[in-house]
């Protein structure tokens, strides 16, 4: 597949990516190479990746325990200390090999170590391929609050190799699929319609669907790298979805939700709000709701869950001057940003979700 050119870096696919990576290593005089992995990618992905590297550089592997709960500043401090102890300098290259937690955290570590060193993302989950690794956002959670600390800083390249998906659990595949569905809902109605019946999808050609999803995100980010305008459209489903994800992450009585599972709920809720504001009609809403509910299991919300979720909205990064800002769909394939939503409407959306 042809590489995609982002604003200041290329996105390569499959075998072309390793050619580009090895050429980059040859052309740049790096002092050493650090590969950041989590415990999963160290076991399942690193053995595939290392033989494809062509370099005489000293390679150090830095591993941290997998899981969203480790995407925090404490893990960053541990990695910064390891980098220092093992002689990383301004000419060190970091490769982040892993899912969204690894690319988010690893990009932040690289962007802040010695005021910034080069890094490359190699996403190994569907979510990271179509979302987390593309666009230059790097950061960590603050307690249970998602992505509160971070920077926008681009890698030298992103290398997407879909062979890593062969070992990915089905629930992780569904998690990544949520972001692909979002890209259709906010930007490309024909793309959304390809997912209406998953039984008809030719998964032998799934690479082309991944490619289109990356293309959509890159087209949006290229127009608005610093999220002042149209890039906010990528937050559809995330205002409520992130609050739900955070609440389930901190509540020991709840089963932690994967990112895409929470975002799928957020998209249903925010589609209901879009319908209530007459931005989409009821048929579109019912199509979205039934499609997402056919893929993702229903999540039970008790009466005492909703108020804490609403309180978490206060910390959403899109809020301005104390007002909660939503990105809502205006017809499938279109978006309307900077929308204020009353609590009563949010409560009605939860009631509708729970009722069917």
UniProtKB/TrEMBL annotation:
<dbReference type="GO" id="GO:0046872">
    <property type="term" value="F:metal ion binding"/>
</dbReference>
<dbReference type="GO" id="GO:0005737">
    <property type="term" value="C:cytoplasm"/>
</dbReference>
<keyword id="KW-0456">Lyase</keyword>
<keyword id="KW-0547">Nucleotide-binding</keyword>
<keyword id="KW-0479">Metal-binding</keyword>
<dbReference type="GO" id="GO:0009423">
    <property type="term" value="P:chorismate biosynthetic process"/>
</dbReference>
<dbReference type="GO" id="GO:0000166">
    <property type="term" value="F:nucleotide binding"/>
</dbReference>
<dbReference type="InterPro" id="IPR030963">
    <property type="entry name" value="DHQ_synth_fam"/>
</dbReference>
<feature type="domain" description="3-dehydroquinate synthase C-terminal">
    <location>
        <begin position="176"/>
        <end position="319"/>
    </location>
</feature>
<dbReference type="InterPro" id="IPR050071">
    <property type="entry name" value="Dehydroquinate_synthase"/>
</dbReference>
<keyword id="KW-0520">NAD</keyword>
<keyword id="KW-0170">Cobalt</keyword>
<protein>
    <recommendedName>
        <fullName>3-dehydroquinate synthase</fullName>
        <ecNumber>4.2.3.4</ecNumber>
    </recommendedName>
</protein>
<comment type="function">
    <text>Catalyzes the conversion of 3-deoxy-D-arabino-heptulosonate 7-phosphate (DAHP) to dehydroquinate (DHQ).</text>
</comment>
<dbReference type="GO" id="GO:0003856">
    <property type="term" value="F:3-dehydroquinate synthase activity"/>
</dbReference>
<dbReference type="Pfam" id="PF01761">
    <property type="entry name" value="DHQ_synthase"/>
</dbReference>
<dbReference type="Pfam" id="PF24621">
    <property type="entry name" value="DHQS_C"/>
</dbReference>
<feature type="domain" description="3-dehydroquinate synthase N-terminal">
    <location>
        <begin position="62"/>
        <end position="174"/>
    </location>
</feature>
<dbReference type="InterPro" id="IPR030960">
    <property type="entry name" value="DHQS/DOIS_N"/>
</dbReference>
<dbReference type="GO" id="GO:0009073">
    <property type="term" value="P:aromatic amino acid family biosynthetic process"/>
</dbReference>
<dbReference type="InterPro" id="IPR056179">
    <property type="entry name" value="DHQS_C"/>
</dbReference>
<dbReference type="InterPro" id="IPR016037">
    <property type="entry name" value="DHQ_synth_AroB"/>
</dbReference>
<keyword id="KW-0862">Zinc</keyword>
């Amino acid at each position: 597949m042809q590489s995609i050119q982002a604003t200041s870096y290329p996105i390569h696919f499959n075998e072309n990516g390793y050619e580009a990576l090895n050429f980059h290593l040859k052309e740049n005089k790096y002092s050493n190479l650090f590969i950041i992995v989590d415990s999963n990618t160290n076991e399942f992905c690193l053995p595939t990746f290392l033989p494809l590297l062509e370099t005489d550089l000293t390679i150090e592997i830095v591993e941290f325990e997998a899981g969203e709960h480790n995407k925090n500043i404490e893990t960053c401090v541990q990695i910064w200390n390891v980098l220092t102890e093992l002689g990383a300098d301004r000419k060190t290259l970091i490769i982040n090999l892993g899912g969204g937690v690894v690319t988010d955290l690893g990009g932040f570590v690289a962007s802040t170590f010695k005021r910034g060193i080069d890094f490359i993302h190699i996403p190994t989950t569907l979510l990271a391929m179509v979302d987390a690794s593309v666009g230059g956002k790097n950061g960590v959670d603050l307690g249970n609050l998602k992505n509160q600390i971070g920077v926008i800083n681009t890698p030298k390249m992103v290398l997407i190799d879909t062979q890593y998906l062969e070992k990915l659990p089905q629930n992780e595949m569904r998690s990544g699929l949520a972001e692909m569905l979002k890209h259709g809902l906010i930007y490309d109605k024909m793309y959304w319609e390809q997912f209406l019946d998953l039984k008809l999808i030719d998964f032998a050609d799934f690479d082309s669907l991944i490619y289109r999803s990356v293309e959509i995100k890159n087209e949006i980010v290229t127009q608005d790298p610093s999220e002042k305008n149209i890039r906010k459209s990528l937050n559809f489903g995330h205002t409520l979805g992130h609050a739900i994800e955070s609440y389930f992450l901190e509540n020991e009585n709840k089963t932690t939700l994967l990112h895409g599972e929470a975002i799928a709920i957020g998209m249903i809720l925010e589609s209901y709000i879009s319908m209530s504001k007459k931005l989409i009609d009821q048929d579109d809403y019912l199509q979205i709701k039934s499609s997402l509910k056919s893929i993702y299991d229903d999540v039970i919300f008790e009466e005492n869950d909703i108020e804490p979720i609403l309180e978490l909205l206060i910390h959403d990064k899109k809020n301005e001057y104390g007002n909660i800002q939503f990105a809502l769909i205006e017809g499938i394939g279109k978006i309307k940003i900077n929308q204020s939503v009353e609590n009563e409407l949010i409560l009605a959306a939860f009631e509708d979700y729970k009722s069917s």
